[in-house]
Amino acid sequence: MVSVPDFDHSACGGTHPRSTGGVGQIVVQRWAKQKNGVRVEFACGGRALRAHQRLNHIGQCSAALLSVGIDELEAAVERLRTSNDVLRNEIAALQDTNLSYFARDLAHRALQHRGRLRVVAQTLSGQPEYLRSVAQRLIDHGIDIALIGAGGERMQLVVASAAASGLDARSILAVGLAPIGGRGGGSAILAQGGGPAQEDPEAVLAAMLEALPRP
Question: What confidence tens digit (pLDDT) does each residue in 116-174 have?
């Protein structure tokens, strides 16, 4: 409790001053609506002073980095965020275009025929999301079955199957996961999995390719 005789007796609100005089200055740091009330965060005494000094230091350093006055900092950060969003969208568009060209080239360069099926089996390097995107884009370029693998500490396998092929990507993936004791899942048109890199990814893809039917 913070007590001022003949004036007020209040809970300290978590500030725990050693004496009433230790309350000193009070700084409200933030507030937000919460259920049926308002949650208020504040500091007092030496903590309030240190909080102000810390925020002032951060503000001054940030303003210096952006070559603006501290009063212009908010607007400068907003401009920076807007510019960053524009650049992120431009990069994403360029990456998508590059992926499309790469998949189209791969569809011609690595094309194999398995009966009437147009198949691409290729090892790549990259994150699982990238491997999945390449496989899906190959299907967009007319490939019936795309088998994509990547080595490293953990082998990754992706299978994409065109709906018209009549083949289940999950069944094809299971052939590749079996020898490495891997796990995975997905849908009939896109499946992905991985496991310990005990085998050569190219050998695993070759086994998956060999297991495909020849319709």
Answer: 889 999 999 989 999 999 999 999 999 999 999 998 888 999 999 999 999 999 999 99
What is the span of the domain harbouring residue 55? Answer: 17-65
Residue 60 maps to a domain: yes
Check residue 136 and give its pLDDT: 95
Q: Is 150 exposed, middle or buried (0-12, 13-18, 19+ CB in 10 A)?
A: buried
Angle, vertex CA 105, rays to CA 175 and CA 102, nearest 5: 85
What is the tally of structural domains in the chain? 2
What CATH code is carried by the domain that includes residue 194? 3.10.310.40
Q: Which tokens hold the place of 168?
A: 């289940």
- Beta strands at 154-161 and 190-196: parallel, antiparallel or unpaired: antiparallel
Angle at 81 between CA 77 and CA 84, to 5 degrees: 135
Residue type, 64: A
